[in-house]
Amino acid sequence: MKPADQFRLLELSERYADEKLSADEISALEAELRDNTEARAFFAKTLHQRAELCFDDSWHTQAAAEAKPTAKPVWWRHAITAAAAACITFGIFWLQSSRDGTVATLIRSQQCQWAGSSLPTVEGARLQPGVLDLIEGLAVLRFDSGAELVLEAPATVEVLDAMNCKLRRGTLVAEVPPQAKGFSIDTKDAKVIDWGTKFGLSADDDGKYMVRVLEGLVEVEDKNVAGSKKLEKGQGMDRGWSKSQLNPTSGDGTEPSRWQPTSVIDAGDGWQAITTAFGRGKDSYIQANTKPTPDFGKHPFIRVKRSDGKPELNRKSYLAFDLSKFVGRQIEDAELVLTIDPSELGFASFVPDSTFAVYGVIDETEDAWEENGLSWQNSPAHDPAQPDHHLPTAAKVKLLGKFEIAQGINRGTRKLRGKDLVDFLSADTNQIATLIICRETDETADSGLVHAFATKENDTRSAPMLRVKVN
Questions:
Q1: Which of 34, 37, 40 minimizes the C-alpha distance to 9?
Q2: Which pTM was predicted?
Q3: Last residue of a domain, one of 95, 130, 160
Q4: In terms of C-beta density within 10 A (0-12 exposed, 13-18 middle, 19 or more buried), how is residue 429 classed?
Q5: DSSP designation for 126
Q6: Quick one: angle between helices 74-86 and 37-55, nearest 10?
Q7: Is the backbone peptide bond immediately before 342 cis, with ω within 30 degrees of 0?
Q8: Of residues 298, 304, 300, the one with CA closest to residue 451
Q9: Is 440 within the bounds of a domain?
């Protein structure tokens, strides 16, 4: 910060403490402190120095000796000290909220869709206490205390005041600067108190929650257990959240099951479509560990992840399509359609816009894999010992194409179409084609998002589909 700016803020802080700022000057100061971290820190420092001077008895004794006729009484000094200290703790963050009840700002919205929110959802909107319900994308809230929350859809958060909020369901990442120490986030069964740090929090309305500390220190108070627990960088606490996400059910009976076609669909204009539910079709995924994974083929999703920092968390997905209905017919065009499924495992904030690659397995002897017996040790076109854990064995596959998923997107479809896919399907001789889906983009920090796509076991989203145009 330039000396001129420091002098200007010093003067403003003195006039603010003496209640001599006009309404326009207060508004301009609020905007500057809200948007400029360096200015906010300098402003707090000047108020802190003022409080220390007011509280220093030796300074007041000397001043009283030099100017007895104008010396102030002790009660006056104490009042000024209390007022200045209050400015340090509350003044900066509650300048605006003291007038209109707002306590936070929606500073960024990325690919956002909202539903059921009682608060404004326009980027830049000032927020009073209320509820935000994010169903798509990423949104960043900056509380007047300085704390910032990144909401990762789907997530519902209740804004309470400048130092408190409640995560009703979903996932967020919180970053709390020193001036906002003590910022707290409630869940149904816990309270997380931040002591100047960065952490991730996931929770559900059934009480399950997970805390992961990325920097600094947090304190967790479980409402079902006496006392609290402090967590430092790299530590976490999981009360059933990960287990519920790793071992999902295909449905809870509250919605009717989606019909997954088990026959060839005539899509018109020469196009026909099949899913992994047709014939000998199958879908599953593998994870880089030594534990057996006999049930991944039963999951309502396939998962994909690249993690160079933690290779044991890499995941690749496998699809197989039954091509028996296309025998003897020339394939002119083809398209793979995948439906994105909200994974709710890991933090989207730690994974940028991501590139995915789709490979076709060349060796047809490897098409006989079992979806409920697939593992890191026995998967097609896969070498557990190769350095690039997230990729298949290059000599055994053909790259069919790539697609992108932007950060924070957890719904919609992605399509892959082109000559390479057509050539791969046309070269098939055993009426079944195996595809492998890999994520090329690494996470930027541990606990990054695991991407997911719906399978034929999914009750609410469409299974992987192969659309083929035949002559």
A1: 40
A2: 0.71
A3: 95
A4: exposed
A5: E
A6: 160
A7: no
A8: 304
A9: yes
